[in-house]
Structure formats: structure tokens, C-alpha cells
Design brief:
Length: about 170
């Protein structure tokens, strides 16, 4: 399992992008302005934003997220859908054609996995995490990128969806 410090996601809800984040062991938080606006949209005050990934194989994706990344299975509809949680982060995985989210659009466009959208998981030691994940058979889109704001690498799920693993820069006192 990957040790999680912090995660964030940009979530589009009713055509509005909402920045949400969470700290391991604590509840989800969203930027106050958009969250306040959402209070008027949702009858359920316990509403929690989620990210949905379209996957080719729900069973392979479920195994990857649970066994490789340490997500917990909340709900599983065989070969069609699964709801997963990692701390307060909620992830839905959906097969094209299954349920409302898997249906084709009026113009014929079909939901498909991949692209550049992703959620980020912050880790304590990126190199050790990458080595541990490679030992479990995980695949990556790139090598570790070292930047001023920290280091990152793009992990691929079995359908080609991205998960960004991120390590913040070490402080000068470390």
C-alpha cells in the first residue's frame, strides 16, 4: 500500500470546476466559494464529490486500485461498476456502456479511458514508492520528473488512466 499524505482533485460538477483536497485521516475539503454554491444544489448535506474513471475492465481496475494502491471497495457491480474510497477520496470506476455514466452521447461519442486528467497522491518517498509499485507490476507513462515544486511521475491504471504520484520538495532543514 502507498503511504498517503495528501491528495487533491479538480472535479467538474454541473460545468463548474471545484478544487477539492484531503489530508490522510481527515475529511475532504473543497474551495469555500464553490462549496457554498453547491450547498444550494444538493438536498443531501452529506454530499461528497467523487472522481469517475472509465475503464476497459472493471475487475482488473478494481484489483489494481485495491491491491496495488490500497483503496477500499465500497460497492461492486460485477463487470460494470465499482465505488472505491481512499481515506476521504471517492473514486468510481465504470465500464463503457454500463449505467448512465457509460452511455454514448447524443453525437455518438463513447466514454473511453485515458487522456491527461488525473488525480494526485502525495507520498513521503517517491523513489521508494515507485520501486514498490514496479515490484507489484505497476506501469508508468514516464520516469520521475524533478521540478522546483517537487517530484512527480505518472502511474497508469490497467485501462491507461493516470494517477500522479507526487513528492513535495524537501525543506532546507531536512
Amino acid at each position: 500500500m502507498v503511504p498517503i499524505l495528501f491528495w487533491y482533485a479538480l472535479i467538474t460538477h454541473h460545468y463548474e470546476t471545484i478544487f477539492c483536497y484531503g489530508i490522510a485521516g481527515r475529511d475532504i475539503a473543497c474551495n469555500a466559494q464553490n462549496l457554498k454554491q453547491m450547498e444550494n444544489i444538493h438536498a443531501d448535506k452529506n454530499y461528497q464529490p467523487a472522481v469517475r474513471y472509465i475503464v476497459n475492465d472493471v475487475e482488473a481496475a478494481l484489483s489494481f486500485y485495491v491491491d496495488t494502491l490500497g483503496f477500499k471497495e465500497v460497492l461492486h457491480v460485477k463487470d460494470a461498476f465499482a465505488s472505491l474510497k481512499l481515506e476521504s477520496f471517492q473514486l468510481f470506476i465504470n465500464k463503457p456502456g454500463a449505467g448512465g455514466a457509460g452511455q454514448s452521447m447524443p453525437d455518438g461519442a463513447k466514454p473511453s479511458p485515458g487522456g491527461w486528467n488525473r488525480f494526485q497522491i502525495t507520498v513521503l518517498n517517491l523513489e521508494k514508492t515507485v520501486d514498490a509499485l514496479k515490484n507489484k507490476g505497476a506501469k508508468f507513462r514516464n520516469e520521475i520528473v524533478h521540478g522546483i515544486g517537487g517530484d512527480q511521475i505518472l502511474l497508469l491504471d490497467p485501462s491507461g488512466n493516470l494517477i500522479e504520484l507526487f513528492q513535495p520538495p524537501k525543506s532546507s532543514s531536512e
